[in-house]
Predict the structure.
Amino acid sequence: MTQKALSRPELRLSFCMQLLVVPVTDNTASTESSSTYKTYEHTAALPAEKMLWYRRHYLPNPEDWANPEASPLFFPQEEFEKLPPAVVIVGELDVLRGEGEAYAQKLQNSGVKAEVHVMKGMPHPFLAMDGVLEAGKRAITLLSEGLTSAFA
């Protein structure tokens, strides 16, 4: 993937709300650099090695991993100030939890309203299990409320 492919200024869109569920915001994260990757390295739902497998297929060139287009956490702080409010939902037992929390924190530090919801005891795919898990149902409600608030 080239820098040109990752950076597309002609696609400037205006968003009014960010609804993020277990977002990947740092494609450089690993068991060495992320406490949640290390803590949940062997979780059944999404072990760290499986997440790295996805990364290597999505971004086969490691030089692209730190590009802000692939890892939004690396955008400069002043870019975060321009972003709309966010609802960020993560699973407590997910390797990606730290990235979601860090993204929400960076938004908050930039003066952007960002709610972060950690679904206690939940692994990565909790949202897909909304038919049987209360946390999945709650996440859908939080997303719906966030979207509704964007148009209030």
The longest helix spans residues 134-150. Strands lie at 18-21, 86-91, 114-119. The CA atoms of residues 80 and 107 lie 6 Å apart.
